[in-house]
What we know:
Blueprint: H1 5-15, H2 22-64, E1 67-71, H3 79-87, E2 92-107, E3 110-119, H4 121-126, H5 128-131, E4 134-137, E5 148-152, H6 153-159, E6 166-177, E7 180-194, H7 199-204, E8 205-209, H8 210-217, E9 225-230, H9 236-239, H10 241-246, E10 251-255, H11 256-259, H12 261-299, H13 301-309, H14 314-345, H15 347-358, H16 365-368, H17 379-405, H18 409-413
Parallel strand pairs: 3-8, 5-7
Antiparallel strand pairs: 1-9, 1-10, 2-3, 2-6, 2-9, 4-7, 5-8, 6-7
Helix pairs in contact: 1-14, 2-12, 2-14, 2-17, 12-14, 12-17, 14-17
Amino acid sequence: MILSRSERMIAKRYLLPGKGERFIFVVASISLVAVMLGVMALVVVMSVMNGFRADLFDKIVGLNGHAVVQGYGGRLPDWEEILEQTRETPGVVSATPLIEQPLMASYDGRVEGVLVRGMQIEDIRANETINSNIVAGDMSRLQPGSNSVAIGSRLATTLGAVPGGEIALISPQGRSTPFGTVPRIVSYTVAAIFEIGIYDFDKAFVLMPMGDAQMLLMLDDDVGMIEIDTTDPENVGEILAPIEAAVAGRAELTDWRRMNSQLFDALAVERVVMFWVLSLIILVAVFNILSSLIMLVRAKRRDIAIMRTMGMTRRGIMRIFLTIGMTTSALGTIAGLILGFVLLRFRQQVVGFVQTVTGAELWDPSIRFITELPARTDPFEVLGIVALALGSAFIFTLYPAFKAAGTDPVEVLRYE
């Protein structure tokens, strides 16, 4: 939309308050602020939702892989054959044998439920999710046969455990006596403490070498499952279809979508609902733009009539009022983007400030799964938000622009 020099001058003049037009200017300013708040809210909320899903996915998959082959009864006797077949499957990046078993842990009189995970030592060393999040101790002390374990930070806090301390793991699979089965209790040294950032994992995980886990759980040479990573997590079902058919009747293959289906489905629904709910703020803002332009057109009927008699075309009048409405929306959109990015940059400080002022915990890790507020901005979503703000403003500006262009100078100036 190209404006002539005179049209730009008139549009600029009408954007500023004239005599007796301060109320119109106040309404237009409120419209600008409303657009700013709507754009800011959409950018912040959508970025946080994207970050939450991405962070959750990265950390869950970093520990559980894209899929697992789970043995029936918690045992996978012929796991070497399945492991070899899985690694040879096209699209499979890695396959890792694991043991996972819920047990009880005791430390200095405190008892908590834990999830014991046994991994081959080379797989432990290669796991970036764990090794990049060590908060205390040394993972190099975790060696096969050393009776050492690594535990989550929340579990360490709950038990009061520290590196070098002794933690006892209690397994119900113990020795049989005339009075029943005596639980098996084995003590281990805490070699390291890690903090992955997912509350449920940090509160329960106990990591140990595979051989130690097999001995603790009396599994002989068996494992419990095989964890699989693929080249494309979105198409994991198609990639692992041959493996699923090969292990049918012996084990069950479950991918990340089925393991966490309720959580990720709920996030997807919440993301869509939040987008449309917050879009209503922008809708209210453009209604304000509409009302301020209608009042401006009524206030400027005499000016419009004079411009028409001086030769300005209807298209020129339309361009002037479209420019006024779009300028208000564009300024609000730019201000909203800037404010939104600033809030995202300092989001953790903002959460901490609000918690300090209100005394309420806004981000409870036991409910939110993740210990810190994440954010990941999608450029295409930002472009969509900008298009929504500017597009809706353009549509709502058309009516007052047409109304101004349709002003009859003869009727307006008849009694002047």
